Amino acid sequence: MSKFSHIYIEDEALGYPISTRILERFPNAKRVWIGDYKEVFGRLNQHFQIQKRSVKLILAVKKGGYLYRGSDFSQGFGYKNFYYNTLMLNCVYNCDYCYLQGMYPSANMVLFVNLEDFFEATRKAVAERKYKSEPLYLSVSYNTDLLAFESVVPYTAYWIEFADACDDLLIEVRTKSANYKAIKHLKATPRVILAWTLSPRKVAEVYEKGAPSLDRRLEAIREAMEDGWQVRLCFDPVLRIRNWNYVYTDFMEEVFRYLPVEKVYDVSLGVFRMNADYLRRIRKLRQDSDILFYPFEVRGDTVSYPLLHRKEMISSLLEKLTQYIPEERIAVWE
Ligand code: SF4
């Protein structure tokens, strides 16, 4: 993240140390004072992909909603106390299949600076969680990629330190970033799962714009595993591209040739799916990505590949994965 031409700052956000740090980091950015981030972020008629060419940063104070119950779209890995939070809105990368393009009116990035309020709400939720025999499972890199933004603000490190000191909390940090060195100085803790999303080389090159290559992600993962971190591998979303079966099975072989399989904490596998309204909106914004124009099947408010295709993809790739990882450690989203 080299620069922002503009930083919008809620008046209320100014007093926070994170705001000060960011304003010092980008001294040449034009500063624009605002009352509420929604004035900028929620404006009508913004074009997500045009804004992606020159993303602006918005510093805001979140008022309530410090954590949310997980939904069916997200994966709770069987944890009953499953929550996520939104420390940032939007992501430095620009994957073709990203639902954020359909969910948010703007591609600008909102960073919530009142981290202590999130921590306080999390402590309370841990204490009040319904299923006391299980930890509170919290996804902290939701609707963003926190580690990819670590050079600007070290939120991943802050959350790892927080989780390490908080009994009965387990956090997942999901990322495509290769920036493991930003958290390497921290001690591995069983209260954190580092979850890397992986795609075949050519999928990453074509459809995961701005994200690190497969090779760089694999290097980061191997280093994290060697340092003792619990690492989750996410093969999700699997895309039905030409020769998908060959491309994905070949890719999985490569992944497990490179990574020490005994150090994989668990795996998730899922095919592309999205909220139907989001996809409708995204298709209006961009016609440049073939994967968005597949003749999907609509089920309720979700679109995905037709049932037969989904079953075929999952069964073939599950068969491949179970050559390396026991099935009980693979979470599947069909
Ligand atoms: S890394 Fe995730 S959040 Fe970021 S653009 Fe890609 S799909 Fe969206």
Short note summarizing the structure:
With 334 residues, the protein is α/β, with parallel strands linked by helices. It contains eleven helices and 18 strands.
How helix-rich are the residues, as a percent range?
Answer: 25-40%
Give the overall average pLDDT. Answer: 96
Low-confidence stretches: none
Strand content is 15-25%
Question: How would you describe what is shown here?
Answer:
With 334 residues, this protein is an alpha/beta fold. Helix content is 32%, strand content 23%. It has one domain (62-87, 114-333): pyruvate-formate lyase- activating enzyme (Alpha-Beta Horseshoe). The protein has helices at 17-25, 37-41, 48-52, 100-103, 115-127, 155-164, 201-207, 214-226, 244-258, 276-285, 307-321, and strands at residues 6-10, 30-34, 57-60, 68-69, 82-84, 88-89, 94-95, 109-112, 136-139, 169-175, 192-197, 208-209, 230-238, 264-271, 273-275, 297-299, 302-304, 330-333. The strands form 4 sheets. An 8-stranded mixed beta sheet has the order 4-5-9-10-11-13-14-18. Strands 2-1-3-8-6 form a 5-stranded mixed beta sheet. Helix 9 runs parallel beside helix 11. It starts with 5 loop residues before the first strand and ends with a strand. The mean pLDDT is 96. Bound molecules: iron/sulfur cluster. Iron/sulfur cluster binds next to strand 7. Iron/sulfur cluster (SF4) binds at residues 91, 93-95, 98, 100, 144-145, 176, 211.
